[in-house]
Specification:
Blueprint lengths: L5 H11 L18 H16 L3 E4 L5 E4 L4 E7 L12 H16 L5 E6 L10 H6 L5 H4 L10 H5 L15 E9 L4 H5 L3 E7 L1 E10 L3 E2 L11 H15 L9 E3 L3 E4 L5 E2 L2 E10 L2 H22 L2 E4 L3 E3 L2 E2 L2 H14 L4 E6 L4 H5 L5 E6 L15 H19 L1
Parallel strand pairs: 3-4, 3-5, 5-17, 6-16
Antiparallel strand pairs: 1-2, 2-4, 6-15, 6-17, 7-12, 7-13, 7-14, 8-11, 9-12, 10-12
Length: 400
């Protein structure tokens, strides 16, 4: 049995939280390429070296701790949302380090560790693993900008003294990522472990309604071509029209909206808003797109508006490797008998991209009250340790 040390693991997980500590609860502010992020990576590199791993930063800034020879890769990411929790990503990298170190101490199988850069999307979606998996060239990635107009090329220049070439994925036999669930299902059921069967696909596009800007006090309601009313009408209609298409795990969100000219006394002439939807079935995602476009066009026609659609962004649903999943399931039953489940992931993760390169799997532990991407994010430490033990148990099963 790989003799993981829960006390050491928890102590280091809390130590990582110091980098970018928000001062509010256990929250962290550690977006990609910020001073806190780079300092955290350098600290983590030191822990990797102490564990006998050879450290290497790739051109995007993803940090690898490499074992000798062919090895199983484990990890996640250590950057955070602009206002993030202490476990999102960080749990996966610290659990991977503990399993790698404990396996080395026990002369077990070689384990390599990775902390991917910009998983949280300062410059895109899972940027570091997307570039590593060759879905996006480094040259194209360098042109991406954040909300302040900083390019990725400029940001990764902050790490120029650290970075080297890309790591060859052929040296890894597979990838396992441990993560908090970021949803309520495990917590509400009182379960300790989730073995992820698939990661949902995502679609995201911008919709624009163009109406007529006019005086809010003198324009009669029947004469208005109010772009915001088009947005509100679209939202009401789309919820009803999805009823016979979606499943309980399908989600859709209008997360951003802007009005022009955005003034109290002016009827908005333009409404631009995001439309994002997620599901594990590619056919359902396509059908939802059809409904979204049809509904927007109908709203525009009924209200005298023009409608346009921005480019479609997203990732395909990804089924995870059956052999790695079986190892996690067996270890979950050993660690938490009857208190685990198979489940989809409604959030995107680096494993989506890595699965293009090698067999990949994911392990979830509960999020208290289903909260994540917030300073209040937390998980019972008993569940953190249970996840660590499942991760180690899966390595043992794969070795056998």
């Amino acid at each position: 049995m790989i003799p993981v040390n829960p006390e050491r693991f928890l102590a280091e997980l809390h130590e990582l939280r110091r980098f970018g500590a928000s001062g509010i609860g256990k929250g962290v502010v550690r977006p990609a390429y910020t001073k806190a992020d780079i300092e955290a990576r350098q600290w983590f590199a030191g822990r990797m070296q102490a564990a006998g791993l050879r450290t290497h930063y790739d051109p995007v800034g993803s940090l690898f701790g490499l074992a000798e020879g062919k090895s199983l890769l484990m990890g996640s990411h250590s950057d955070s949302q602009p206002e993030g929790g202490w476990l999102d990503g960080a749990l996966g990298v610290m659990a991977a380090l503990e399993v790698a170190r404990a396996s080395r101490e026990a002369d077990g199988p070689p384990i390599s560790v990775v902390s991917f850069q910009d998983e949280e999307g300062r410059f895109g979606v899972t940027t570091g693993s997307t570039v590593w998996s060759r879905k996006l060239s480094l040259e194209a990635a360098d042109e991406l900008t954040d909300r302040e107009g900083v390019t990725l090329a400029e940001a990764r220049g902050e790490m120029a003294h650290l970075i080297g070439d890309f790591v060859d994925p052929a040296q890894f036999s597979g990838f396992i990522e441990m993560h908090i669930e970021q949803g309520p299902w495990l917590f509400e059921a009182g379960e300790a472990i989730g073995v992820v069967e698939n990661i949902v696909g995502i679609r995201d596009m911008r919709i624009t309604f163009e109406g007529e800007q006019n005086h809010a006090g003198t324009t009669p309601m029947h004469r208005r071509r109010d772009a915001f009313q088009g947005l509100a009408d679209f939202n009401a209609r789309i919820n009803a029209r999805f009823d016979n298409v979606v499943t309980p795990t399908t989600v859709w969100t209008i997360g951003h909206a802007s009005l022009h000219p955005d003034a109290h006394s002016i009827v908005p002439g333009r409404a631009v808003f995001s439309m994002q939807w997620r599901d594990g079935d590619a056919g359902r995602l396509a059908r939802m797109e059809e409904i979204i476009r049809e509904t927007a066009r109908e709203v525009a026609a009924d209200r005298g508006l023009e409608v346009s659609f921005g480019p479609m962004l997203g990732l395909e649903p990804m089924d995870l490797d059956t052999r790695l999943r079986a190892a996690l399931e067996g270890a979950a039953e050993d660690t938490a008998p009857g208190r685990w489940r198979r489940m989809p992931s409604g959030a995107l993760h680096d494993a989506t991209n890595v699965a293009q390169l090698m067999p990949s799997a994911m392990l979830f532990v509960p999020s208290i009250n289903g909260i994540s991407h917030a300073f209040e994010e937390d998980t019972d430490e008993r569940d953190l340790v249970a996840g660590l033990k499942v991760l180690a148990g899966a390595v043992e099963r794969l070795q056998g």
